[in-house]
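User: Predict the complex.
Assistant: Input components as received:
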Amino acid sequence: DSGVTQTPKHLITATGQRVTLRCSPRSGDLSVYWYQQSLDQGLQFLIQYYNGEERAKGNILERFSAQQFPDLHSELNLSSLELGDSALYFCASSVHSASAGEQFFGPGTRLTVL
Amino acid sequence: AQTVTQSQPEMSVQEAETVTLSCTYDTSESDYYLFWYKQPPSRQMILVIRQEAYKQQNATENRFSVNFQKAAKSFSLKISDSQLGDAAMYFCAYRSFSGGSEKLVFGKGTKLTVNP
């Protein structure tokens, strides 16, 4: 158990819909990262938040957005869903420090868009 | 931009034997981190081992060790005394050391099968 929690574990929805994925980082971790794992694209970085502020963006679609709340939990919002958005979405957290490299991953949310 | 390449989509090993998974990367940075993550069928991402680029000594964690060749930009993972529980996807990952984005850049993965 990494200490990172994600809900829900599974999500099945239809094209055009909107969903919200939730992540709670490890206690004390200020940075939250979102990654998407799909069969064709592999593991790709989407976005990073540090202590409530957006810190870096990766290949995140405009239909996707995220935020980190004062209690440090984060939500990833996916809208106007398409079949190709079906993937495993991971949240990871880390202590924000140049000396600490590890990111600890949650169990993931499997999104299926029908 | 940094890239990570894992040239072996699949590998297999006999139980109790040793196997080496390959990883190469491309970067212009001098300081960075390298990682191997394991993803078993449960899909959980588990950190196996990490290496700081400024350290010349290769990292080891029990049966797992790396061969880090900075000049060659190579970072292979050796699994000794392979066990059935080692069967999984293994991902090599790169992370910048300096400030800015601390995102992980992953390779495509190597699927390891352990035969009894």
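The mean pLDDT of chain A is 92.
Let me know if you want any component modeled separately.
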